[in-house]
Amino acid sequence: MIVRIQSEATLRAPAPEAKRLLGLAEIPAGNHGAEGSLFRLDWSNRMPQRDELFSAAERLHAYLLRRHFQNGVLHGPDVGVRFNLRAWRFLKSGLDFIGWRDDYTFMQSQGCWVLSNWMLFEATGEGRFRELALETSEATRRLQQPEGFWSYPLPERKHLIATVEGNWGAVALLASHAREPRREFLESAVRWYDFVVTRIGFQDHSPGKAVNYFDRPRGKVPNNSAEAVWVFLLFWKATGDRRFLEHVSGLLNFLAAVQLRSGELPYIVESAFESRREHYQCFQYNAFQFLKLRWSAALGGAPQADSLLAGLARFLERGVVPSGACALDCRRRLPEIDYHTAVLAAALEEAARLGLAGSSGPADRAYARVLSRQRPDGSFGFSSGDYGFLRDQRSYPRQQVMTLFHLLYGCGLGNGFPPAR
Question: Whole-structure pTM over 0.70, yes or no?
Answer without folding.
Answer: yes
